[in-house]
Each structure stands twice: as structure tokens, then as C-alpha cells.
């Protein structure tokens, strides 16, 4: 029997209209446009309006990806949404997306792996397709981090933005997803976290008194190290020299982290997809949004080899080597 692989049949993304610039932030906390640009690479980020939710962006990103793939709601037979900011605890975001889009009966679930959530979801979607358990998987990464950001804390509020990205996976004779690589290490839980939840300190959670906490400097160093290792792991597994990569699509957390990963791969920055200046850090949405931007502006072409990578709270980290 022929091997089944999965391939990305279409990509999509969605951003809130509202923009928060570095100049806006200068009026809110003790910071400067210059500090934010030189330390992070971020110039502006999109923020959900009060009436908008994560689901709105996930829906739009999903519709765009499905249109690009030429598939409709009846074709989708698996929905996975990576997110740490779901609209509700349950129904899960996959089910809420089904309800919005008129999909009925297929498995649908959310997955929480912070900024690496989309890579985790892609890994699972790929395995469903390879196993023959799905033929048209909708994989979404969506986030409204602004809803868990303290806009009086200059150490975090300059970083985060909102948005969603999506891909449709379908079976193929040749690998589209060549390999995926996932890691996690809970020993770093205290370096980047959201303190409360439904079960722990629910009063703070329900009162909206809690925000993202991060020891930025320590996170930075470990992110550089782990991402450097995982891109090498992805290439070594496939005996692929870095010169064969057409594009690096990195998690957009900090331009300096991205530059360090590109250096590790000896890739010039012209072959790295950057959206951080416009999007900020959108956690699990950042990789699929960057992928979609570069597909739609024509930089990423069919047949090219692309490395996706992400790192986030947990810590969780992952990479996917793909032939688009
Ligand atoms: N404006 C001006 N000064 C600031 C700001 C700001 N917005 N934020 C911090 N500073 C100050 C600090 O107070 C400190 O001042 P001090 O020296 O007087 O104490 C100084 O700048 C340096 O602070 P550092 O934290 O050492 O700055 P650093 O160069 O590390 O940059 C940053 C901070 C941008 C947060 C960086 O550490 C980073 O990007 N970390 C990684 C973030 C990340 O990758 N997160 C993972 C994904 S996110 C997720 O999973 C949800």
C-alpha cells in the first residue's frame, strides 16, 4: 500500500482592525519606541476590540484557509484549535468553530501548548492524515493575548498582539509535512505563566485580576538555546543541509531570538519570514499567520522547503519541516 502523507492545501489568517503602536504605548507605560524596536523588533500590534473574541479571528482565518484549499464545511473531518485564550472553557474552540461554520459530527478539540500550540496541532493533524483517520483537517492557531496582558507592566505589555492563522491539511503521495518535532519541559514552568485558572485561584481568574508573568531575560536565553537545537534536530533527522531550506518561518516573539536561530542555520535574514514588526507576539497564531502572509504575497511558492519553529510557556517548543 502507498504511504499517505499530509500536505498544506491552503492557508489563511485574520487580524483585528485596531492597532496599538509603540507611540501609543509610550503614553501608557514608561517605555520608548526606540527601546521596543531595538530590544524586540516590534513596531505595532493588532488588538481585539471589546466586542471581538478569539473565535472571530479563528473563524475568519479558517474561512480564508478553506477558500484557498477549495474546500467547504462538509469536507472538513477534523478540527484542532491551538489556543491559550479560548472564548469559553467549554464547548472547546473546535466545537465553537464548528457551530459558527456549520460543520457537524467530525472530531473537534482545542489544544493548549502556549506559543508552540500550532506546531503541536499540526503534528497531530499530520498523524491523523498519515493514519488514514482524517482526509481534510482544519488546523487553527488563534489568540487574544491582550485579554491576559497587564497594560501597566512595561516588561510584557509591549510584546503581545492578537490574531489567528489556519491551514487545511489533506492527504498526498509525497510528503508535504516532512517531519515534526515536539518537546516540553515543565521544570521551566515558573519562568513564563498565567497564575490562575478555573481550579487554582478561581477568584482571581474570574475577577480578571491575573496577567501573564514572565522572567523575560531568562526566557530569552533558553528560547535561543532550545530553538537552535530544534532546527538542527529537524534538519539532521532528514539529512538535509540548511542550504536546502528556502524559508524559515519562526515564532515571532523577539527579532533577536529569530536572528539567533537564523545564524544557527546560516540563513540570511532575506530568507526569514518576519511579521513581528506588524503583529508583535501573537503566541500560537504567529507561525500560521506568518506562513499565510508569505504565501499570499508570493514569497513562499509550491515545492519550496520551509522550516517552522515555535517556543512558549511550559516550556513547550516544536518545529515542522515542510515542502509547501
Ligand atoms: N521599555 C523600557 N525599558 C524596559 C522595558 C520597556 N518596555 N521593559 C523592560 N525594560 C527595562 C528593564 O526594566 C531593565 O531595566 P534595568 O536594567 O534598569 O533593570 C532593562 O530594560 C533590561 O531588561 P531585560 O528584561 O533584561 O531586557 P531584555 O533585553 O531581556 O528584553 C524582553 C526584554 C524583550 C522581554 C526579552 O527578554 C524577550 O523577548 N524575552 C523572551 C520573550 C519570549 O520569547 N517569550 C516566549 C513566548 S511568549 C508566550 O509563550 C506567551
Blueprint of the fold:
Layout: E1 5-14, E2 19-21, H1 22-26, H2 33-40, E3 44-46, H3 54-69, E4 78-82, H4 93-101, E5 108-111, H5 117-130, E6 137-144, H6 154-157, E7 162-172, E8 177-184, E9 192-193, H7 202-206, E10 213-214, H8 216-237, E11 247-250, H9 255-264, H10 276-279, H11 286-296, E12 305-312, E13 316-323
Parallel strand pairs: 4-5, 4-6, 11-12
Antiparallel strand pairs: 1-7, 2-3, 6-7, 8-13, 9-10, 12-13
Helix pairs in contact: 3-4, 8-9
Bound molecules: acetyl coenzyme *A (ACO).
Report what the structure shows.
There is one protein chain. With 324 residues, this protein is an alpha/beta fold. 33% of the residues lie in helices and 23% in strands. A 5-stranded mixed beta sheet has the order 1-7-6-4-5, sandwiched between helices. A hairpin with a 3-residue loop joins β12 and β13 (316-323). α3 (54-69) crosses α4. The mean pLDDT is 97. The structure holds acetyl coenzyme *A. Acetyl coenzyme *A is lined by residues 31, 35-36, 39-40, 114-115, 154-155, 158, 192, 216-217, 219-220, 223, 253-254, 257, 281, 283, 311-313.
Salient structural properties:
324 residues, alpha/beta, 5-stranded mixed β-sheet, 4-stranded mixed β-sheet, binds acetyl coenzyme *A
What's a concise summary of this model?
With 324 residues, the protein is of the alpha/beta class. Helix content is 33%, strand content 23%.
Number of strands: 13
Distance between the termini: 24 Å
Count the DSSP helices. 11
Strand order of the largest sheet: 1-7-6-4-5
List the bound ligands: acetyl coenzyme *A
- String of helices and strands: EEHHEHEHEHEHEEEHEHEHHHEE
Structural class: alpha/beta
Give the helix level as a range of percent.
25-40%
| Mean pLDDT value | 97
Main β sheet profile:
5 strands, mixed
Shape estimate: globular
- Strand % is 15-25%
Low-confidence stretches: none
Radius of gyration (Å): 18 Å
Amino acid at each position: 500500500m502507498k504511504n499517505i502523507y499530509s500536505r498544506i492545501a491552503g492557508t489563511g489568517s485574520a487580524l483585528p482592525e485596531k492597532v496599538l503602536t509603540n507611540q501609543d504605548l509610550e503614553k501608557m507605560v514608561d517605555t520608548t519606541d526606540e527601546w521596543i524596536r531595538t530590544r524586540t523588533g516590534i513596531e505595532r500590534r493588532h488588538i481585539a476590540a471589546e466586542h471581538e473574541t478569539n473565535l472571530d479571528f479563528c473563524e475568519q482565518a479558517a474561512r480564508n484557509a478553506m477558500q484557498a484549499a477549495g474546500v467547504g464545511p462538509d469536507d472538513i473531518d477534523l478540527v484542532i484549535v491551538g489556543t491559550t485564550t479560548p472564548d469559553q472553557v467549554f464547548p472547546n474552540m473546535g466545537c465553537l468553530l464548528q457551530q459558527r461554520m456549520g460543520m457537524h459530527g467530525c472530531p473537534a478539540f482545542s489544544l493548549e501548548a502556549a506559543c508552540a500550540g500550532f506546531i503541536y496541532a499540526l503534528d497531530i493533524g499530520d498523524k491523523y492524515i498519515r493514519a488514514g483517520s482524517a482526509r481534510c483537517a482544519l488546523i487553527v492557531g488563534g489568540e487574544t493575548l491582550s485579554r491576559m496582558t497587564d497594560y501597566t507592566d512595561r516588561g510584557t505589555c509591549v510584546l503581545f498582539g492578537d490574531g489567528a492563522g489556519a491551514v487545511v491539511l489533506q492527504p498526498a503521495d509525497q510528503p508535504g509535512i516532512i517531519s515534526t518535532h515536539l518537546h516540553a519541559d515543565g521544570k521551566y514552568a515558573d519562568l513564563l505563566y498565567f497564575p490562575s485558572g478555573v481550579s487554582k485561584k478561581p477568584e482571581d481568574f474570574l475577577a480578571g485580576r491575573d496577567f501573564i508573568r514572565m522572567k523575560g531575560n531568562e526566557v530569552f536565553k533558553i528560547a535561543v538555546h532550545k530553538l537552535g537545537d530544534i532546527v538542527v534536530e529537524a534538519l539532521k533527522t532528514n539529512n538535509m543541509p540548511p542550504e536546502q531550506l528556502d524559508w524559515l518561518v519562526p515564532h515571532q516573539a523577539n527579532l533577536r531570538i529569530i536572528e539567533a536561530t537564523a545564524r544557527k542555520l546560516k540563513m540570511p535574514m532575506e530568507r526569514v519570514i518576519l511579521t513581528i514588526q506588524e503583529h508583535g507576539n501573537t503566541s500560537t497564531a504567529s507561525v500560521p499567520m506568518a506562513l499565510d502572509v508569505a504565501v499570499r504575497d508570493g514569497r513562499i511558492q509550491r515545492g519550496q522547503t520551509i522550516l517552522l519553529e515555535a517556543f512558549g510557556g511550559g516550556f513547550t517548543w516544536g518545529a515542522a519541516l515542510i515542502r509547501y
